[in-house]
């Protein structure tokens, strides 16, 4: 790929112009046709996500104060080690922070004894097999995304204006975590890198109840505004898509029709 890039008609990145000015500058200097065109699923995500909410996540969120709930989703490729899963569950229980946690049946079997029953009895949390992620993240009650930091999840969090508690596992998740913590500064890492009960409690308290959390929300909302501008009718995302498709198809392209 590195050898072929200099001869490419266009270079397309799955990001939004302005999100990382260093990357933008580098690619604009190297390539005439540089098109940041991601994540165009965000163009209509608020309108096109299925309304199915069979587990009642959104109605449950309606009962909570703004920015009070943690949403936990650690991806589908890597299975969290049982010991970490137990530590995360114990941290949630100790903190008392309300949470939504999509978790498959096999993973649920590794939770601490009595944890699920206690969650149901107290109403402090909601463990489901599936949740409408974009809608949940955009809900006013959600104040933290506990995440593996895959790129799509990072962009969804930015688009919703939600800080991230980072637990990367592999690949680009490690690089994305570094950007979140040290460049954009809208997230928090774990002191021990992995989930521990004390580490989870500390992170939840800091983001959802502390001054540091307020600063993170301010940072990510600045990025959210940048992404929202790119998604407008005259924004860079639509413009880049039109320019890219003109190269691919040799004609003007009606992005409004194609993306509606």
From TrEMBL:
A Pfam family: UDPGT
Similarity comment text for this entry: Belongs to the UDP-glycosyltransferase family.
Protein name: UDP-glycosyltransferases domain-containing protein
GO MF term set: UDP-glycosyltransferase activity
Source taxonomy: Eukaryota, Viridiplantae, Streptophyta, Embryophyta, Tracheophyta
InterPro entries: UDP_glucos_trans, UDP_glycos_trans_CS
Keywords on record: Glycosyltransferase, Transferase
PROSITE patterns, alphabetized: UDPGT
Keyword check for Transferase: yes
CDD domains: GT1_Gtf-like (cd03784)
Keyword Ubl conjugation among record annotations: no
Origin: domain of life: Eukaryota
């Amino acid at each position: 790929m590195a050898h072929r890039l200099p001869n490419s008609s266009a270079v397309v990145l799955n990001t939004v112009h302005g999100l990382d000015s260093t990357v933008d500058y580098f690619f604009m200097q190297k390539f005439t046709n540089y098109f940041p065109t991601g994540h165009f699923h965000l163009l209509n995500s608020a309108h096109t996500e299925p309304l199915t909410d069979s587990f009642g996540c959104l109605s449950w969120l309606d009962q909570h104060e703004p920015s009070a709930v943690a949403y936990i989703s650690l991806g589908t490729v890597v299975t969290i080690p049982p010991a970490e899963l137990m530590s995360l569950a114990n941290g949630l229980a100790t903190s008392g922070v309300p949470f939504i946690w999509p978790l498959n049946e096999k993973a649920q079997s590794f939770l601490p004894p009595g944890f699920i029953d206690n969650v149901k009895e107290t109403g402090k949390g909601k463990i489901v097999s599936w949740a409408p992620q974009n809608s949940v993240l955009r809900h006013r009650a959600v104040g933290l995304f506990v995440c593996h930091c895959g790129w799509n999840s990072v962009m969804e969090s930015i688009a919703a204006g939600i800080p991230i508690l980072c637990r990367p596992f592999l690949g680009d998740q490690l690089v994305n975590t570094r950007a979140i913590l040290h460049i954009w500064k809208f997230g928090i890492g774990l002191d021990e890198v992995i989930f521990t009960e004390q580490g989870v409690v500390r992170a939840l308290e800091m983001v959802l109840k502390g001054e540091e959390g307020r600063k993170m929300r301010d940072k990510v909302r600045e990025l959210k505004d940048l992404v929202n501008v790119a998604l407008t009718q005259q924004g860079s995302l639509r413009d880049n898509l039109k320019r890219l498709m003109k190269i691919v198809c040799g004609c003007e392209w009606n992005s409004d029709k194609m993306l509606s």
